[in-house]
Design brief:
The complex is a heterodimer of chains A (about 400) and B (about 300). With about 400 residues, chain A is mainly alpha-helical. Chain A has 16 helices and no strands. Chain A has helices spanning about 5-15, 20-25, 30-55, 55-60, 70-80, 85-95, 105-125, 135, 145-170, 175-185, 185-205, 225-250, 260-295, 300-325, 330-355, 370-390. In chain A, α3 crosses α16 (about 370-390) and α12 packs antiparallel against α13 (about 260-295). The radius of gyration of chain A is 22 Å and the shape is globular. The two termini of chain A are about 25 Å apart. Chain B is α+β, with helices and mostly antiparallel strands. Chain B folds into two domains: about 5-30 and about 265-305, no CATH class; about 40-255, Alpha-Beta Plaits, CATH 3.30.70.20. In chain B, β4 and β5 form a beta hairpin. Chain B starts with a helix and ends with a helix. Classes of the chains: A mainly alpha (about 400), B alpha+beta (about 300). The interface between A and B is large, with 72 and 79 residues.
Chain lengths: ~400, ~300
């Protein structure tokens, strides 16, 4: 079946979703887009302000509090929540858990965009963002854990791009390129697992060098393990949350998906089971950390109560809730618990890098409205990018022209 | 599955070699280091300091920082608050109550301690910091990206940032007047300026002897503690005091472990992961692949039987 493809029809089919330009614009006049546009109209000038006037006027960062939400939230939380790509890749391509295959592509796309926008957020934080490649090419500080993070995040971004490529070439109908990248899948998955293990734990290890700055309940030699295990939890729960939202937002794609409603629920419950087990493990590790330092007395302090909020409220309770939901075969309950867990991971990262950092000095950091605005703007651009891609490329469903890879 | 066995092995070799060549160097780059033997230091005797703040003036003067006339440094109102170093202030003098003699407050000069094993240098991923054999920890702004990890990691809260510079901000801190002390007979500007000789410049090892001698000869005057002798593995700047150090703005809970050591455990794990993870991954992959094949064969056999 040969079709004559003109440039106009190609653009219409692939960019404007098969609509004329006018219809396409019309179809975009939605309440969500209205809010997104407002955020961008407000947020982009703030970004420009940060670039032109510098960190001093734009942020509440100080000499005592050099890291704010762009590190503590955008980077730390962004990278943790983007762990779904490697977790699902491992489950499906290495462990052979084929029933989870429909979730791999969305997880990898979420992962890729998560990392990409975390790095974009980082650019606003760096004093001299234009020197970003310096640790790779100009001056290599090999003894630094941040050096490892920088390299691994860069390599992993590339790896995830490679893993995403088959979808791009299916969209562009470039069969040969697609085949090349499909061949790289297994290698990329293994490489991704190694890189993820190391940089997820390395992000936490950045704090190993701050024993005098972090509250003892958050400082432990186990930080790398905490970050790694909680990143896997973040990856799994984020996949649950993302697939739930995708099923709602991209309703029209649901009939094309490789799984029906029951299968989707079953997969969700399976993920809930894994999350429950990991949360229990993570909770025990947290206790071990306190026991190592013998900091039990600190639990009966202001920071101790806050620690309990994080570790009981957002780790132990979700662990039980997941177990309960799995036992009752309740996918909805799994999804709700996943939302709580994702919030808990974010809370942990912010605690680790902001709230419980410099706990012993008076000067406390509260982000400026401009820092918050830029973070929200970056997330909005990330969501718009995600939607743009999902609407065009075969991410949530299998492209009918291609055999599924293994 | 688009990968045959040979292609698969080829992939692995490529991944393995990239990983090993690219990464293991950093685990090996860590060797034990206990400070340069002939490095310089400064001994600060806080019982001598009169809080004239002339060292602050001299510091700004020699480092070309925005400065005020020296007469304005007599202003005692700055002592109302506890100050720290900032982008254009590499050293400050703070005033503390003297629990031993309430009539005589204690003045404490604060600046970079110039650690033997500096946290700032070990966390910097562009190697912008260098501990020189003379003892100075020097920052090289020409490679600095401005991640400010050094500021977050410094146990003494010393490095500061030019937050108000939009395009070329730099990390700043005391340089130990590196360009001066490298020259024969050169001393830091603050030491040269001090009118009461509260600061003594010399070889760190000799200063330690001097400090302990002063303490030994005047046991009533000093507490038996040379701050900086062992703190975070030792620092080039040393202090002796009449009262416990936690009363005059020093942290006494920093321990004696050099800050860079806290990352060793993790860094040594890096190579372990690099070596074992690929093997584990292949193991899991082969296992699941085999299981799949067996399942396929079995279903075929069943069909044939039917």
């Amino acid at each position: 079946m040969e079709k004559i493809v003109t440039r106009e029809s190609w653009i219409r089919e692939n960019i404007f979703l098969g609509m004329s330009f006018r219809d396409y614009v019309k179809s975009n006049l939605t309440p969500f887009n209205f809010i997104a546009a407002l955020i961008l109209i407000f947020g982009i000038p703030v970004m420009v302000y940060r670039i032109i006037y510098g960190l001093g006027p734009a942020t509440n960062l100080s000499d005592n509090n050099p890291w704010g939400i762009w590190i503590g939230f955008d980077m730390m939380t962004g990278v943790a929540l983007a762990a779904g790509g490697f977790v699902m890749g491992t489950a499906v391509h290495l462990f052979g858990m084929k029933e989870y295959r429909p979730l791999v592509r969305p997880a990898i796309l979420t992962g890729f965009l998560g990392y990409l926008f975390a790095v974009i957020g980082l650019l606003f934080d760096l004093g001299r963002y234009y020197r970003l490649p310096y640790p790779m090419v100009v001056s290599l500080g090999v003894s630094s854990i941040l050096f490892l993070v920088a390299w691994h995040v860069a390599l992993y971004l590339t790896t995830q791009f490679v893993e995403w490529c088959p979808a791009i070439f299916e969209w562009l109908n470039m069969k040969k390129f697609r085949k090349w990248f499909i061949r790289l899948t297994l290698g990329a998955t293994i490489f991704g697992v190694i890189l993820s293990t190391l940089h997820q734990s390395a992000l936490g290890s950045l704090f190993l060098l701050m024993p005098s700055k972090l509250h003892p309940l958050w400082y432990s030699s186990l930080i790398p393990v905490y970050f790694f295990v909680s990143a896997i939890i973040a990856g799994i729960t984020m996949v649950i949350v993302e697939s739930m939202l995708s099923h709602r937002v991209f309703k029209e794609q649901v009939p094309k998906m490789a799984m029906n409603h029951d299968q989707f629920d079953r997969i969700t419950i399976g993920l809930g089971k894994a999350a429950s087990a990991l949360l229990f493990t993570y909770f025990c590790l947290k206790l071990v950390g306190v026991a190592h330092g013998n900091h039990w007395d600190l639990i009966n302090t202001k920071y101790g109560y806050w620690w309990l909020v994080e570790v009981v409220g957002f780790v132990l309770i979700p662990a039980f809730l997941f177990a309960f939901a799995v036992r009752n075969d309740n996918a909805k309950f799994v999804r709700a618990t996943a939302v709580i867990t994702v919030i808990g991971i974010a809370l942990n990262r912010v605690n680790q890098s902001i709230i419980c950092f410099n706990w012993n000095i008076e000067e406390q950091y509260i982000p400026s409205w401009m820092e918050v605005t830029i973070t929200i703007t970056i997330i909005t651009i990330g969501l718009l990018t995600f939607r743009w891609i999902i609407n065009r490329m075969p991410i949530l469903y299998d492209h009918p022209d291609y055999d599924i890879e293994h | 599955m688009g990968i045959d066995r040979r292609g698969f092995i080829k992939h692995l070799t490529a991944i393995g070699s990239t990983a090993v060549v690219g990464k293991t160097t950093k685990a090996l780059a860590h060797e034990d280091f206990t400070g340069y033997p002939d490095s310089y230091g400064v001994l600060v005797d806080v019982t001598v300091c009169i809080g004239c703040r002339k060292c602050e003036w001299a510091c700004k003067n020699v480092n070309n920082l925005p400065n005020k006339p020296i007469t304005e440094y007599d202003d005692k109102s700055v002592f109302e608050t506890n100050r720290r170093t900032h982008a254009d202030t590499f050293t400050v003098v703070n005033r503390f109550k003297n629990s031993k003699n309430p009539d005589k407050p204690i003045y404490v000069k604060k600046q970079c301690m110039h650690c033997n094993e500096p946290a700032c240098a070990s966390v910097c991923f562009v190697q912008a910091f260098n501990k020189s054999p003379e003892g100075a920890v020097v920052h090289n702004p020409s490679v600095c990206i401005g991640c400010r990890y050094c500021m977050a990691a410094c146990p003494f809260n010393i490095p500061a940032y030019q937050y108000d510079d939009a395009f070329t901000p730099e990390v700043t801190k005391c340089t130990f007047c590196f360009d001066r002390i490298r020259k024969e007979g050169g001393v830091p500007a603050c030491v040269e300026m001090c009118p009461v000789e509260a600061l003594t410049f010399g070889r760190r090892s000799e200063l330690l002897d001097l400090a302990h001698e002063r303490i030994r000869n005047n046991p009533d005057k000093y507490v038996n503690h040379v701050y900086g002798e062992h703190e975070v593995g030792g620092t080039s700047w040393l202090y002796i005091s009449p009262v416990p150090f936690d009363e005059i703005g020093f942290r006494t809970d920093l321990g004696t472990t050099p800050i860079p050591k806290y990352s060793r455990g993790f860094l040594s794990m890096v190579s372990v992961v690099l070596v074992t993870w690929p093997a584990l991954c292949i193991g899991f992959f082969s296992f699941s692949k085999r299981r799949e094949e067996l399942a396929k064969n079995e279903s075929q056999n069943n069909k044939e039987e039917e």
